[in-house]
Every structure is written in structure tokens, then in C-alpha cells.
Amino acid sequence: MALNADAKPDTVPAMVLDRIAAHGTETILREKYRGIWKAVTWAELGARMREVGLGLMALGFRPGDIACVLADTRLEWAYVDLGILGVGGVSGGLDPADSAEQIGEALHQADCRLLFVENDEQLDKVLLVRDRCPALQRIIIFDMKGLRDFADPLCESFEAFVARGGDYDRTHSGDWGAGIAAVGTGQPSVLLFPHGGETGKGRVLTHGDVRHLIANARSLLAPRAGDERLALLPMCHVMERVFGLYLALDARVVSNYLENPDTVTENLQELQPTILGTDRQIWEGLHARATNAAAGATRMQRLMYRAAVAIGERGGLQAGLARLCVLRAVRRELGLSRLRHAYIGAASLPPNIERWATALGITIQQIDGQATKGIAVDARYRALIEEAYGT
User: What pairing do the DSSP bridges indicate for beta strands 27-33 and 36-41?
Assistant: First the structure.
């Protein structure tokens, strides 16, 4: 699956194949399953990506066709997204919090051909509105729990979808890697749907646009190979897909996927990530945890914590001592002991939380419209990207 040695990986799937060739046995993703972190190497990622691509081709999916995902952030989301891009398709993400009406409108406006859904809850919403989506030909379900007796000619499990791709692979010859290399930078790749109750067809980023965003993100955040991140934001938004997954793949940062979204606190403590991209709610929760812990501590501990925070906010040598003697333990308890880069893409943090993070020695960077500078693309969707970044 390696690219030609002289080829430049100007698309995300081409970049992934380039990394596979150079770092095949290196871990790039992890998923927590039944309490245990399971590692995924570059080679395994390529195999999953290929399975999805073959499944799509078996269903007659062609370059330029649109496939969407309606699911919380999970490992299969990444596999499907990359598989869609690898066969020249356009990948769109629907917000799992959307209503059936919003989902139906989005699918109809986008002329979505294939839809991947997480579970029975999301499937129920789609079934209510599928008669309004004439282009929709297939619904693929990740989690079949509660659907054992469900039968519908339009729907199938993810396992059945992958198996069809395997059959297709045995009866059709062709170099899948060469197909990825043929995807051009000017071709459409990522579909961004309107959000916040808005309607419309959404906006499409080309492969070249996405690579430009990745390059800008890399210069802003300076990730290093071997860094660790938690995938906490919705994959349907540009912050998690581009500044999260795609940037991590480009920089060889390990992305970690939670088993349950309610276990953020425990997983932060366990992983102690070096990069944290999230929303203001996570930081508000971390600040509340530290404040509540201090309130329940001894009088001397409360005084030491408050004094250390006040000193840390002012900066200088004394701040360094306060962090070393007191606040280092706070960072470790919160899961932030190794954190080098923190960023958010939604509304700005409240000033008191920014000051508190500064006291801990953490600068939280807000990603905004500066990330889109220099993209020679239609201004109609530049505004959408900037809105997604919270400007």
C-alpha cells in the first residue's frame, strides 16, 4: 500500500499510506474496551481503512459520492471517515444530538448515498425521515445491541458491510493504494453541515483545503511524534476531525478513544495526555473539581492551595516554586501533569478559569479564523469554519 517514493502526500489518505510505509508497527490509535486500552498500529489502521473502502466500492460508491456518519466520537468513526476519503468520496458528520427533523433535512440537502449510524437510538431517528431522503441507499449500523431481530432491506450491520467488502476484494483485482494516490487535492473531501439549528446543504472542503488547515494547525500547536491526546470533541465538527484526528495522524500523535463519554475524568488521570483539545465545559469541570477538592481539604491545605494559585497567576520565580511545591500535585490529580499544549475552539474561557490555568502553568490557546488564512477557496464556507472555531 506504499506510495511512490517520489510522491508527495497531498491528501489525508495518501498521508496515512505514507505513514504506514514508514511506521507500520508504531501505535497511532487506542480504544478503551472493557476497561483495557487496546492499541492500533498504523498497519492495522490501514487494514481497517481498506476494509471500509472495499465495502463502499462493493456498494457501487464512486468518487464524489457523499457518505455520512451519525455517531458519537469512536474508533469506527475514524475508520469510516478515512475509508470514505480513500475512495475519493466526501465524508460528512451529523451531530448525534440533532433531532430526526434536522437529520432528515441534512441528508436530503446533501444527497447522502450511504449513512453510518451508531446504534438503535440513532437508527430510529433516521427511519422516521428516510422517506424524505431519496438518494439514501444504505444504512450501516455500528452497534447492533437491541437490534438482533431487526430486519430491513436498507439496513445492515457494520460487520456485514465489511464482509461484503471482503467478497468484493476476492472477485475484483486492483491496487487500492494506487487508487488513493489518484485522489487529487482539488477534489471534495469533507462536508461540514450547518449547526445550531441552521439549515442548508453544508459546505465542502477539498483535500487541498484540509491539508492547508493541517499545516496551519501544526504550526500553531507544534505537536510531536509520540504525543498523546484524548478524542473528546464531536467528530462531526471541524475541531475534532481536522485539528484532532487529521493533525494527529500527520504529526504521529496517538489518539485515544474513550469507552464511555462519562469517564473523561478517569481517563485524563490515567493517560495524562500531552495535548488536550476540548471545549470550555471540560475546563469548567476541571476548575470545579480542584475548587471542590480544596474546599474539602484541611484548613492548612486550603490556605496553601489558594496562596499557590494567587502566586502562580502573578508569574515569575515565585510562581515556579508554587507550581513545583503545590500545584504540580493538582495538575497530576486532574490528569494534566504532562500537558504541553491545550486549545479550545468554542467560546472563550471565563477570565477566572484562564487565570487559574495560568497559575497551573497552562496556556489555553483559542483556535480561530487565523487557521483558515491563505486558503484559496470559496468564501462561502470560510465563514462556517471560523464559526466552528468559535470566532
Answer: antiparallel
